[in-house]
Amino acid sequence: MVQADATSDIAAALSAGNTAWILTASALVLLMTPGLAFFYGGMVRGKTVLNMMMMSFISMGVVGVIWVLWGFPMAFGTDVGGFMGNPFDGFGLGNMMTTDGSAPLTNMAFVAFQATFAIITVALISGAIADRTKFGAWVAFTGIWITLVYFPVAHWVWAAEGWIYRLGAIDFAGGTVVHINAGIAGLALALVIGKRKGWGKDPMRPHNLPFVMLGAGLLWFGWFGFNAGSALAADNTASVVWVNTMAATCAAMLGWLITEKIRDGKATSLGAASGVVAGLVAITPACSSVSPVGAVVLGLVAGVVCALAVGLKWKLGFDDSLDVVGVHLVGGLTGTLLIGLLATSAAPAGVDGLFYGGGLRQLGIQAAAAFAVLGYSLVLTLIIGFAIRLTRGFRVPDEVESTGVDLAIHGETAYEALGTGRVAQEVKA
Amino acid sequence: MKLVCAVIQPHRLDDVKSALEAAGVRGMTVSEASGYGRQRGHTEVYRGAEYQVDLVPKVRIEILVADEDAVSVTSVVVGAARTGKIGDGKVWTLPVEDVARVRTGEHGPDAL
Description:
The structure holds 2 protein chains of 2 kinds. Chain A is mainly alpha-helical. Chain A has helices at residues 4-7, 16-43, 49-76, 107-125, 135-158, 163-167, 175-193, 209-228, 236-264, 269-286, 292-309, 312-316, 324-342, 361-391, 398-403, 405-410; strands spanning 79-80, 84-85.
């Protein structure tokens, strides 16, 4: 995220073009969350697909409301010690409904854009805890986590007074704030909630790979808003970012598929969809600081590294059901750290990494930012997770897990099956 | 009357159907089925995790025939479904006590 007034190549007066692009980009990013619902929903078993999709949808409900109440001021409002914004100063966004015309973007456009980032970040975590989570516990978690973890971290990295921002770390669109943050939180929750019954023994194949492909496509489309929108202007930076986002993603798909072909003998559709997401994750922090060729290199590395990283859970024995760790944590770390090597001052961010004669300085800053976010999110998520587990329980009873969360918790099933019997209808007026 | 049942490789269905039509068979019921015999399934790999899938997709064909046609219909199916590889399937015949045609109410061989 750049501070638009300082680095935009458009004059610093309210620009209709900028505002139009950011409002459009906001809608693109919001679509990523339903896209994620399809991406995740296709990967679980048929008896839990609705619950999986609902975990994404409900984060739009909860986080969208919190955002307009205390979310935005807490992330971007009046700074309190470089740690977070004051949630009470600007509560309810009453102070954001006008714009003075001196900034290149309306206030509310920035509010809108940032809302969509908060929403998808918490939704990403749900992939780690598929098939076994109490819905009410998840709803509670989304509200608590977004407040205690996401808003402070977004402030550190993206607010002008935030301590990581002042450190000089580059996280253009959310490698740390979104992906490392959600990835490590996913690991923490997978540990708190525990493995699914029969994990590692019973088949837990994706039940609908076309859903996964559809979701990956929607994510990719929305991600252009995510990354290019983070320029906060319709300018040259946004254009470079757009091309870098495409290039890295294409290369990551190839990287993942080549890895599969060599290791497993076949290039799979799930591998293609996963490679796409891995590439999008990895280029997210780096999209303004590398060249298009640098983006291809970064994407290839991310595709290969993430394809190998998803195997870690089997070796280490944690049930990160849909590989939030392998894709988002590992991909986020890969992109955030590779900035330290691949950044070139010819790109809009104007910083040289190790390979362009910039030495190790930027790599050190990137690592500090990455591990600060990782450490904070890990500790806070473990605390929140255990608090929910001890007070109201985080996990459904065993028989619900066997029957399927859809029917037991939501009272619905996704697919009509033979043997549902005669349907008796009663209309509640 | 007999019921000839066949479980075959899905990709042989079109050939079996044409062969049966050429042999004068005028109706059949086809359904998707899952199963395994000596073939013992296959492996699928999802994000590097290997699954042994023992039930593989098959097609099941059911044909009602007159007693004297059962053997010839069976050999038509066997001939058209065969690829020579493990997993080609099986064909078996069952006696049928009665058949009724729903539209007319006819019973027995007349209903075939």
